[in-house]
Amino acid sequence: MRRGRPHVVRLCANTRCPQVGRDGREARLASATLVTMDTTTDQGIHDARRDRWVASSTDTAALAWVADRTATTHRHLVPVAAVGRNDGGGLVTVLDRPRGTPLSAALDRLGAPTTGVAVTLSVPLLELFVAAVDGAVRLGAAGIDDVLVDDAGAVVLCDRPVGASRDDEAPAAAATATDVDAARVVVLAARVVWERVDPRDPVRDDVDTALVLALDGDRTAARAALDVVLAAAPPRPFRWTPPRADLLFAEPEPPRSTGTVADRLLAVVRDAVEHGVPLGAGRRLPLRRVVVGIVVATGTAIAAVSTLGAGNGGS
Fold this sequence. Notes:
The protein has nine helices and eleven strands.
């Protein structure tokens, strides 16, 4: 049984009564074998989407972030898809957020990472932190769940302009309540990674101390934390398999007719026209082929009878 965050879709204990989603489709198990009733398969996976953030036209911090990010093509930073103005003159930024799993959920799937895997996951985050402290890159606001592990197994920081709000939300209050410096978030994310490493590992104490000092330290502390992590172990590549969905979504089956004989006969004919003639074992033959076969067989029989009749008349 896999562990993780509960999935938002649940199945009834009686699998003949699947739950119908908001779009009218049913959630069914991909496999017909019911070993467990665990529906925590995606572990909080986020589909790729485009987020629209709106900032004030006079917000210099947001303008600086957009200018810096549009000029940067960093593997571990969310890219900007488009920039524009809305009807009120506000700065609209569209971010191309990748498909991925939040870091904490991804670590739940990986289990306790080895030191090499922890280095692989945390070094890109600390490199972003050092670059931000040096002024080489400008980071915005983010939350810990905005650090994703994408389908390729790379960590991606999905930050946003400071002070911006979603396009469908009221500005100011809701946004500023969740604004956290993304530079601080990447260090916290690195700590989340190393907290999963075996505490008996001899490098844990040095790494933990360096990350705590870097959290509120200067450039020297930031660089020292990166050096300590790099010296902990060689980076170890790991195979990241995105969570596989065990739920398939299909159109609900039409209710069985309980009307008259004519209604049931009409339902059978409609099913044959739409889906074909059932042959058993879940297979169906298209109605067109059935009709063609009947026509050919009928024509062949008539031709044979005509030939036999003509031969008997001649004798």
